[in-house]
Design brief:
The chain has 185 residues and is mainly α. The protein has helices at 5-10, 13-38, 40-63, 78-83, 112-115, 119-139, 168-180. 54% of the residues lie in helices and 0% in strands.
Length: 185
Amino acid sequence: MTLTRRYRKNLKGGKRRKRKTIRRKRKAKKRTRRRKMKGGARMRLTRMNRQLSALKRKIRKRQRGGCSTYKCNYPSNVGEIFTGIPLNKNPFLPDPKYGNSNIRSRQKGGGLMDDIGLGDVLLNYYKGTNAISNQPIRYKGGKPLMKADPMYQPNLSAPVAAKITPNVPQFYNVSSQSAATNTIN
Protein backbone atom coordinates (compact mmCIF):
# COMPACT_ATOMS: atom_id res chain seq x y z
CA MET A 1 0.00 0.00 0.00
CA THR A 2 1.49 3.30 -1.01
CA LEU A 3 1.09 6.27 1.24
CA THR A 4 -0.03 9.47 -0.47
CA ARG A 5 0.69 12.91 0.90
CA ARG A 6 -2.89 13.40 2.03
CA TYR A 7 -2.90 10.05 3.82
CA ARG A 8 0.36 10.89 5.58
CA LYS A 9 -0.99 14.28 6.60
CA ASN A 10 -4.08 12.76 8.19
CA LEU A 11 -2.03 10.34 10.32
CA LYS A 12 -1.30 11.73 13.75
CA GLY A 13 2.06 11.22 15.57
CA GLY A 14 1.31 7.86 17.21
CA LYS A 15 -0.31 6.25 14.19
CA ARG A 16 2.42 7.52 11.93
CA ARG A 17 5.12 6.03 14.17
CA LYS A 18 3.26 2.73 14.35
CA ARG A 19 3.07 2.52 10.56
CA LYS A 20 6.81 3.23 10.30
CA THR A 21 7.70 0.45 12.74
CA ILE A 22 5.40 -2.00 10.95
CA ARG A 23 7.09 -1.15 7.66
CA ARG A 24 10.53 -1.52 9.24
CA LYS A 25 9.65 -4.96 10.66
CA ARG A 26 8.39 -6.13 7.27
CA LYS A 27 11.66 -5.00 5.63
CA ALA A 28 13.69 -6.82 8.29
CA LYS A 29 11.67 -10.01 7.71
CA LYS A 30 12.32 -9.80 3.99
CA ARG A 31 16.04 -9.33 4.64
CA THR A 32 16.24 -12.34 6.92
CA ARG A 33 14.36 -14.47 4.40
CA ARG A 34 16.84 -13.43 1.70
CA ARG A 35 19.77 -14.22 3.98
CA LYS A 36 18.40 -17.64 4.79
CA MET A 37 17.92 -18.36 1.13
CA LYS A 38 21.40 -17.12 0.19
CA GLY A 39 23.72 -18.83 2.65
CA GLY A 40 21.99 -20.19 5.69
CA ALA A 41 23.91 -21.21 8.78
CA ARG A 42 27.21 -21.65 6.98
CA MET A 43 27.15 -18.11 5.60
CA ARG A 44 26.24 -16.70 9.02
CA LEU A 45 29.19 -18.59 10.54
CA THR A 46 31.68 -17.10 8.10
CA ARG A 47 30.25 -13.65 8.76
CA MET A 48 30.59 -14.21 12.51
CA ASN A 49 34.19 -15.35 12.07
CA ARG A 50 34.97 -12.24 10.05
CA GLN A 51 33.44 -10.02 12.71
CA LEU A 52 35.33 -11.87 15.44
CA SER A 53 38.68 -11.52 13.68
CA ALA A 54 37.99 -7.81 13.13
CA LEU A 55 37.23 -7.43 16.82
CA LYS A 56 40.48 -9.23 17.73
CA ARG A 57 42.45 -6.88 15.47
CA LYS A 58 40.76 -3.90 17.10
CA ILE A 59 41.63 -5.17 20.59
CA ARG A 60 45.23 -5.86 19.57
CA LYS A 61 45.54 -2.31 18.24
CA ARG A 62 44.16 -0.93 21.48
CA GLN A 63 46.44 -3.09 23.66
CA ARG A 64 49.71 -1.94 22.12
CA GLY A 65 51.79 -0.38 24.86
CA GLY A 66 54.56 2.15 24.97
CA CYS A 67 54.73 5.61 23.54
CA SER A 68 53.17 6.46 20.22
CA THR A 69 56.49 7.59 18.77
CA TYR A 70 59.84 5.80 18.56
CA LYS A 71 61.54 8.42 20.70
CA CYS A 72 59.59 8.50 23.95
CA ASN A 73 58.88 11.98 25.27
CA TYR A 74 58.83 10.83 28.90
CA PRO A 75 61.92 10.99 31.14
CA SER A 76 63.61 7.83 32.45
CA ASN A 77 61.95 8.14 35.90
CA VAL A 78 58.42 8.20 34.49
CA GLY A 79 57.21 5.61 37.03
CA GLU A 80 58.25 7.82 39.92
CA ILE A 81 56.49 10.80 38.34
CA PHE A 82 53.18 8.96 37.95
CA THR A 83 53.16 6.95 41.19
CA GLY A 84 55.23 9.14 43.49
CA ILE A 85 57.28 6.11 44.61
CA PRO A 86 60.99 6.13 43.63
CA LEU A 87 62.52 3.13 41.85
CA ASN A 88 64.06 0.64 44.29
CA LYS A 89 67.32 -0.37 42.65
CA ASN A 90 68.23 -2.99 45.29
CA PRO A 91 64.95 -4.69 46.27
CA PHE A 92 64.78 -7.38 48.94
CA LEU A 93 63.02 -10.26 47.25
CA PRO A 94 62.23 -13.17 49.56
CA ASP A 95 62.00 -16.70 48.24
CA PRO A 96 58.65 -17.19 46.55
CA LYS A 97 56.16 -19.19 48.56
CA TYR A 98 54.36 -22.08 46.90
CA GLY A 99 50.77 -20.93 47.12
CA ASN A 100 49.03 -23.87 45.48
CA SER A 101 48.71 -25.92 48.65
CA ASN A 102 46.26 -26.20 51.54
CA ILE A 103 48.91 -27.61 53.89
CA ARG A 104 50.67 -25.17 56.21
CA SER A 105 54.04 -26.80 56.76
CA ARG A 106 57.69 -26.17 55.97
CA GLN A 107 59.36 -27.49 52.86
CA LYS A 108 60.52 -31.08 53.27
CA GLY A 109 63.84 -32.56 52.27
CA GLY A 110 67.46 -32.47 53.36
CA GLY A 111 67.14 -33.98 56.81
CA LEU A 112 69.07 -33.54 60.04
CA MET A 113 72.54 -34.03 58.55
CA ASP A 114 72.01 -31.20 56.05
CA ASP A 115 70.50 -28.96 58.73
CA ILE A 116 73.58 -29.19 60.98
CA GLY A 117 76.04 -28.83 58.08
CA LEU A 118 77.08 -32.47 57.61
CA GLY A 119 75.62 -32.93 54.13
CA ASP A 120 79.02 -33.91 52.72
CA VAL A 121 79.25 -36.77 55.23
CA LEU A 122 75.89 -38.04 54.01
CA LEU A 123 76.96 -37.72 50.36
CA ASN A 124 80.17 -39.64 51.06
CA TYR A 125 78.13 -42.37 52.75
CA TYR A 126 75.98 -42.73 49.62
CA LYS A 127 79.08 -42.80 47.41
CA GLY A 128 80.62 -45.53 49.58
CA THR A 129 77.51 -47.74 49.52
CA ASN A 130 77.34 -47.32 45.74
CA ALA A 131 80.99 -48.36 45.39
CA ILE A 132 80.43 -51.47 47.52
CA SER A 133 77.25 -52.49 45.64
CA ASN A 134 78.92 -51.76 42.25
CA GLN A 135 81.68 -54.40 42.78
CA PRO A 136 79.55 -57.54 42.22
CA ILE A 137 77.63 -55.79 39.40
CA ARG A 138 80.87 -54.85 37.58
CA TYR A 139 82.34 -58.34 38.17
CA LYS A 140 79.34 -59.86 36.35
CA GLY A 141 79.75 -57.31 33.53
CA GLY A 142 76.72 -55.16 34.30
CA LYS A 143 76.27 -51.42 34.21
CA PRO A 144 77.29 -49.57 37.41
CA LEU A 145 74.78 -47.73 39.55
CA MET A 146 74.14 -44.02 38.95
CA LYS A 147 76.61 -41.77 40.76
CA ALA A 148 75.37 -40.22 44.00
CA ASP A 149 77.05 -36.88 43.34
CA PRO A 150 74.41 -34.25 42.43
CA MET A 151 76.97 -32.41 40.29
CA TYR A 152 77.30 -35.41 37.95
CA GLN A 153 74.82 -34.75 35.12
CA PRO A 154 75.69 -36.97 32.12
CA ASN A 155 72.88 -35.65 29.89
CA LEU A 156 73.99 -32.05 30.36
CA SER A 157 77.69 -32.49 29.58
CA ALA A 158 78.45 -32.41 25.85
CA PRO A 159 81.86 -33.15 24.31
CA VAL A 160 83.82 -30.03 23.41
CA ALA A 161 84.73 -29.80 19.73
CA ALA A 162 88.49 -29.89 19.03
CA LYS A 163 89.69 -26.53 17.71
CA ILE A 164 92.69 -26.41 15.40
CA THR A 165 94.19 -22.99 14.72
CA PRO A 166 95.33 -22.63 11.08
CA ASN A 167 98.95 -21.68 10.41
CA VAL A 168 98.29 -18.66 8.19
CA PRO A 169 101.95 -17.47 7.74
CA GLN A 170 103.02 -20.89 6.45
CA PHE A 171 100.09 -21.00 3.97
CA TYR A 172 101.07 -17.51 2.76
CA ASN A 173 104.73 -18.47 2.17
CA VAL A 174 103.83 -21.66 0.28
CA SER A 175 101.26 -19.92 -1.93
CA SER A 176 103.56 -16.96 -2.71
CA GLN A 177 106.37 -19.34 -3.78
CA SER A 178 104.03 -21.32 -6.06
CA ALA A 179 102.73 -18.05 -7.55
CA ALA A 180 106.30 -16.82 -8.21
CA THR A 181 107.01 -19.87 -10.40
CA ASN A 182 104.02 -19.01 -12.62
CA THR A 183 105.38 -15.62 -13.78
CA ILE A 184 105.88 -14.77 -17.47
CA ASN A 185 109.52 -14.77 -18.75
